[in-house]
């Protein structure tokens, strides 16, 4: 079953890949699965997917995206049919569609929600302030279904989120000028509301390096924390969760996270960042960021994911952790001074 509407004022696609489009009677369990992007075929993907699907209680799995439907739902039907009643893709590509009653019905019928990768700016433009936003938040906070997000889908699950209208900011750009013009697209507390991610900003693809991506994003996430600390005048602690490609962070209903990945010492790592109440020593437009505090500006717990899931990080207190290692991140001056050092 599929449906497409091409009117620009009410543009969406719905494709039911398997099963039937009706309430299932499932009793899903809450949970959040954060995915760092580029996860297809990675070690850890199967175990993370099964962790998520077991919380669905053989219910209806809905993939939400913009920019036309993809292959996530059909992959679920092929690989995990016994764990779901049905799977469908819904692409919302206009503000009109984001308030369409039929679209909202599709979302409210879901027993699990997977927010696909793509363009978080499109998600913010089309969905924020719409009936879709209300329906998603009801799924999370009232129906308490499991929710997953990869890449752009993970980015918008944070209380703070970065949705650039143009090219995303580089680590060097925000570290050398924390008020770079691309930082205007950091938003907070006005979109998806996941209680365990309150005061958290997320970032993905931290380790991606290729001809089009010449810098890693570890420094970028650090820079986001500095700007948020400044903009909120240290009103409360600020946290960050950053994932390398192919890393999966599974957060259960008690707020305990574990990490799936490739089990190696390089790549597919998860980072849990927390500010310690010390504002940057220098944060001004046009000047490099200085956030040092004797090499202890931001406290970070790093967990290297394994195929079966590893580590234990308590997001209710950000202090109880096992299976990883503590680090400090800081900069003595801009990108050139940015460092990550193990805690001694």
Average pLDDT: 94
User: What is the quaternary state of this protein?
Assistant: single chain
Number of strands: 19
Query: What helical percentage do the residues reach?
Result: 10-25%
Content of β-strand: 25-35%
Given as residue ranges, the uncertain stretches (5+ residues, pLDDT < 50) are none
- Main beta sheet strand tally, sense and closure: 11 strands, mixed
Q: Work out the radius of gyration.
A: 20 Å
Report the end-to-end length measured between terminal Cα atoms. Answer: 58 Å
Order of helices and strands: EEEHEHEHEHHEHEHEEHEEEEEEEEE
Strand order of the largest sheet: 1-2-5-4-6-7-3-12-13-16-17
How many domains make up the 3D coordinates? 2
How many DSSP H or I helices? 8
Based on secondary structure, the structural category is: alpha+beta
Question: What is the overall shape?
Answer: globular
How would you characterize this protein structure?
By secondary structure, the chain is of the alpha+beta class. The chain has helices at residues 45-54, 72-79, 101-108, 120-127, 131-143, 152-155, 171-176, 218-231; strands at 2-5, 12-18, 31-35, 60-65, 86-92, 112-115, 146-150, 160-162, 186-188, 200-203, 239-243, 248-251, 256-260, 269-275, 298-304, 310-314, 321-322, 325-331, 338-342. The chain has 2 domains: 11-157, Class I glutamine amidotransferase (GATase) domain (Rossmann fold); 164-344, no CATH class. The protein has 8 helices and 19 strands. An 11-stranded mixed sheet has the order 1-2-5-4-6-7-3-12-13-16-17, sandwiched between helices.
């Amino acid at each position: 079953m599929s449906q497409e509407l091409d009117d620009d004022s009410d543009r969406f696609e719905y494709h039911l890949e398997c099963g039937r489009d009706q309430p299932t009677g499932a009793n899903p369990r809450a949970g959040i699965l954060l995915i760092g992007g580029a996860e297809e075929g990675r070690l850890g993907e199967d175990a993370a997917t099964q962790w998520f699907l077991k919380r669905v209680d053989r219910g209806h799995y809905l993939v939400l995206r913009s920019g036309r439907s993809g292959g996530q739902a059909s992959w679920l039907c092929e690989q995990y049919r016994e764990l779901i009643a049905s799977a469908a893709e819904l692409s919302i590509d206009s503000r009109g569609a984001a308030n369409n009653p039929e679209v909202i019905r599709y979302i409210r019928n879901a027993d699990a929600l997977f927010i696909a990768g793509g363009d978080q700016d499109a998600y913010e433009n089309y969905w924020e302030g719409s009936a879709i936003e209300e329906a998603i938040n009801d799924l999370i906070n009232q129906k308490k279904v499991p929710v997953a997000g990869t890449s752009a889908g993970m980015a918008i699950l944070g209380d703070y989120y970065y949705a650039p209208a143009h090219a995303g900011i580089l680590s060097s750009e925000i570290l050398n000028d924390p008020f770079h013009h691309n930082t205007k697209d950091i938003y907070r507390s006005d979109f998806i509301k996941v209680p365990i991610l309150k005061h958290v900003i997320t970032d993905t693809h931290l380790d991606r390096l290729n001809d089009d991506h010449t810098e890693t994003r570890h420094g970028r996430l650090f820079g986001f924390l500095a700007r948020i600390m400044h903009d909120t005048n240290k009103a409360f602690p600020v946290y960050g969760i950053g994932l390398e490609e192919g890393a999966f962070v599974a957060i259960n209903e008690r707020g305990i996270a574990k990490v799936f990945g490739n089990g190696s010492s390089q790549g597919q790592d998860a980072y849990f960042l927390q500010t310690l109440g010390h504002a940057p020593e220098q944060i001004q437009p046009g000047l490099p960021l200085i956030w040092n505090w004797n090499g202890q500006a931001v406290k970070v717990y790093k967990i290297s994911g394994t195929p079966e899931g590893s580590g234990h990080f308590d997001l209710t207190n950000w202090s109880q952790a096992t299976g990883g290692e503590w680090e400090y991140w800081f900069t003595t001056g801009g990108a050139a001074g940015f460092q990550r050092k193990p805690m001694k």
